[in-house]
């Protein structure tokens, strides 16, 4: 168990594209376990490996109904739309209202390398989209005009 440092603000790694995971080994298990500890310590709803400085396509999502470990995740279906407040553990003190699909279907591998499908609605759909965006170097603030980013407000339902 270990807490890893979360990269924040202008750290250039946050803009980089993460690489596909090809090897499902003990190092991946350690990364996933450390990310879990880091996510829960930070009290976020999700965390991408790039946020702890590792450019691998690995994300965690937990919106209060259990932890999901998604490796090489892809959105395979997106329907509807929602406008809700979004935040990010890498952009502390900021939030903003973003447009996201209301429902998404995601396929991803688990830590054994087996492909699984997941459905998310509402907050979970937003968390999937937000975390998968991180893997391609995108932050939610890119979806907003600068004046739409709210500073210094800590909202309880920040997604990370
Ligand atoms: Zn984030």
In short:
The protein is α+β, with helices and mostly antiparallel strands.
Would you give an account of this structure?
The chain has helices at 26-42, 123-135, and strands at 46-48, 58-61, 68-79, 82-86, 94-100, 103-109, 115-121, 150-151. By secondary structure, the chain is an alpha+beta fold. The strands form 2 sheets. It has a 5-stranded antiparallel sheet, with helices on both faces. Strands 4-5-8 form a 3-stranded antiparallel sheet. Zinc ion (ZN) binds next to helix 2.
List the helices and strands and how they pair.
Blueprint: H1 26-42, E1 46-48, E2 58-61, E3 68-79, E4 82-86, E5 94-100, E6 103-109, E7 115-121, H2 123-135, E8 150-151
Antiparallel strand pairs: 1-2, 2-3, 3-6, 4-5, 5-8, 6-7
The protein binds zinc ion.
Order of helices and strands: HEEEEEEEHE
Major β-sheet strand ordering:
1-2-3-6-7
Total number of strands: 8
* CA gyration radius, whole angstroms: 15 Å
Low-confidence stretches: none
Shape: globular
Q: What's the main sheet like? A: 5 strands, antiparallel
| Unique ligands | zinc ion
The computed structural class is: alpha+beta
Beginning-to-end CA distance, first to last residue: 21 Å
Number of helices: 2
- The proportion of residues forming helix, as a percent range, comes to 10-25%
Mean of residue pLDDT values:
94
